Amino acid sequence: MASRIGTPADWLRALLRVPLFIKIVVANLTLLAAIALLSAYASSPGGWDSPTLWAGGFLLLALLNGLLVRLALRPLRQIEAVVRRVEEGDPRARVPESAIADRELHRLAEVVNRMLDAIEGERHLKARLNASMARAEEAERGRIAGELFNDTSQTLSAALLHLQLAARHLDGGPGSERDPGRELESARADVLAALSGIQRIARSLRPPELDELGPFTALAGHARRITQRTGVPIELSGALPPGTLEAETSLAFFRVLQEAVTNAAVHGAPSKVQVSIEVMSGEVRAAVSDDGRGFDVGALDDHPEAHLGVRQMFERSRQVQGELQVRSGKGEGTTVVLRVPRSQKNVGVA
Q: Which residue segments constitute the domains of the chain, with CATH numbers given?
């Protein structure tokens, strides 16, 4: 079988792809060899004896050596230029394939391009998530507005009507035959109902226990309300003394566990939910476990708009240098583990 002989272009391409180290060594050896040859020629009979010729020869050799080294380092300059373009706001910049890059530089360029692709993908994913979160926030605003209008506003309107009827009785106007005491009592009941609705809405937005008694008490109150709503028992164990967490960390800690408990009880269809909180030397660890239907954790990457609450949990934990783990599988229940750093002034305090 006849062997295939490469074309001159193949030979040149193979020559240019030798490792960068070898390229630089060859360039410097070439310069040294040329100097040795010039020295031998100059010392021979009839050799160069003019300083100008010597200077010109050395300058030419230095230029040739510089060109060889510059050619060898060109792939590195291309990588540097691409990174600078990305820093300046061009996320689509990529390192072009170089015919003179050796295997190591070629792998480096591939790694840089993969990294830039990952950053670009993360940027698009974050944009989609931000859009989804904006829609969810707008839907929440609509829900709250609807509750205020349909429940609280109508209840206050009814209270106003009862007060008007009571006032007519006192003035002796039309409708004065109605018992003012009953109308005032009805107005009082309506105002109390409206007040209860406002408190319920405010508590859902930010429970007052969170600032007054800390995230553990706020979480316990949230768990009681979820149990009343769904009938799913929620067991809390452990403790979290006041001042264990910084204010921002405390808020993120509560919001992540609030979402985890709500997801487990409302969407997981479990027989029970268990929440444990453990204070360690440098961190606070919390776990929310249920025996419900579970879900495919891998779908978080495939469908970024799905499980938006879980994604918000990850984002909140990252914002306070925390770590969140979600373990789940269809029919296997779900376990959410959150670790957040303790307040530095209380680290080491039992």
A: 8-101 (no CATH), 208-350 (3.30.565.10)
CB atoms closer than 10 angstroms to residue 82: 19
With 70 as the cut, is the pLDDT of residue 259 above it?
yes
Least confident of 53-62, 141-150, 212-221: 53-62
Distances (CA, A) of 277 to 177, 215, 227, 235, 241: 62, 11, 19, 11, 11
- What's at 95, amino acid-wise? V
Confidence of residue 167 (pLDDT cuts 50, 70, 90): confident
Close Cβ partners of 338 (under 8 Å, ≥ 6 residues apart): 253, 256, 257, 260, 285, 286, 287, 313, 317, 322, 323, 324, 325
State how far the Cα of 309 lies from the Cα of 117, in Å rounded to an integer. 26
Backbone angles phi, psi at 275, to 5 degrees: -125, 125
Place of tokens 């205020």: 148
Distances (CA, A) of 102 to 67, 189, 243: 17, 83, 57
| Per-residue burial over 252-273, b = 16 or more CB atoms within 10 Å of its CB, e = otherwise | bbbbbbbbbbbbbbeebebeeb
- Give residue-wise pLDDT tens across range 71-96: 767 788 888 889 888 888 888 888 88
User: Residue 283's pLDDT band (boundaries 50, 70, 90)?
Assistant: very high
Number of H helices, E strands in the chain: 11, 5
Question: Comparing 141 with 109, which gets the higher pLDDT?
Answer: 109
As a whole number of angstroms, the distance between CA 173 and CA 218 comes to: 51
Question: Residues 6 or more apart from 89 whose CB is under 8 A from it?
Answer: none
Give backbone dihedrals phi and psi of 178, rounded to 5 degrees, phi first.
Answer: -75, 145
Mean pLDDT of 332-339: 94
How far apart CA 250 and CA 338 sit, in angstroms, is 12
Residues in Cβ contact with 63 at an 8 Å cutoff, skipping those fewer than 6 apart: none
Rounded (5°) CA angle 116-120-124: 170
